[in-house]
Amino acid sequence: MQNTRYIGHIAALITIATWGTTFISTKVLLTGFQPLEILFFRFIMAFFALWLAYPQMLKTDKKQEPVFMAAGLCGICLYYLLENIALTYTQASNVGVIGSTAPFFTALLAHYFMRSAGSLSKQFIIGFFIVMSGIACISFNGAAMQLNPLGDLLAISAAVVWAFYALLTKKISSYGYPVILATRRTFFYGILFMVPALGFLDFELNLARFANTTYLFNIVFLGLGASALCFVTWNLAVRELGAVKASVYIYMVPVITVITSAIVLQEKITLLVALGTILTMTGLFISEYRPKKKIK
């Protein structure tokens, strides 16, 4: 039992360390690709990688298919499309920090849609307002103190969509299917929902662009590392640690994103960005912290 928990912690660390840098790779690819193109190439690669890793069909109950479909729509298609478009309007560091609010929205949705979730504590509400203050600081980043509402709003919308995906994933994990097969089924529906949008959002196959080694490296990193590997390791972490403990690792995402975006993209870490990052992480910690009960 203890060994499996260690595996869960290692899986969570690998996932978050990778996901914290995906915003930078996506930002680099956006110089030559449309948001939907990045998304499509990334998950097509991830789907076939998982097929090669576990070439077996997943047989499910027909009543469970709508849950897989909804998970693919939310966690693969809508979440990443909103995130990628957000990156065309705002900095990678902004999207990384704002995206870390997903646990808040997950808790809110769980409170209203899951009977077992319990009531929202004062601690949670206080933490929520601190996080919103942090997001406000990040949104006002810049010498002229100009608000960038569209990019940041899209990033918040992505966090909300991810919250729905988190609840759907929890439901899927209760089915007891192998993690790789369940993840691959979710990818399949995510890609399926992308197809209708290909004709409307300037999609071009144009594989010649991958002759650029920078583009090739980043799409392979997103497809094989951040998608094929990390979706499996994240689901493994949730299974071994539980959704609450695994979500604690999400707090590391904004730190990794802000630091790597400053190093790779030369994005400036202004006073407001630093303050916003600190407020966001403090609010998340306050909201989710649960002191250990003393044994009498």
TrEMBL record:
Keyword Cell membrane: yes
Topological type in the membrane: Multi-pass membrane protein
UniProtKB keywords: Cell membrane, Membrane, Transmembrane, Transmembrane helix
Keyword flag Thylakoid: no
Start and end residues of each EamA domain: 7-139, 150-286
TM regions (residue ranges): 7-30, 36-54, 66-82, 94-113, 125-144, 150-167, 187-203, 215-236, 248-265, 271-289
Recorded superkingdom: Bacteria
Localization of this protein: Cell membrane
Gene Ontology CC terms, in alphabetical order: plasma membrane
Listed SUPFAM superfamilies: Multidrug resistance efflux transporter EmrE (SSF103481)
Family label: Belongs to the EamA transporter family.
Name used for this protein in its record: Putative membrane protein
Lineage: Bacteria, Bacillati, Bacillota, Negativicutes, Acidaminococcales
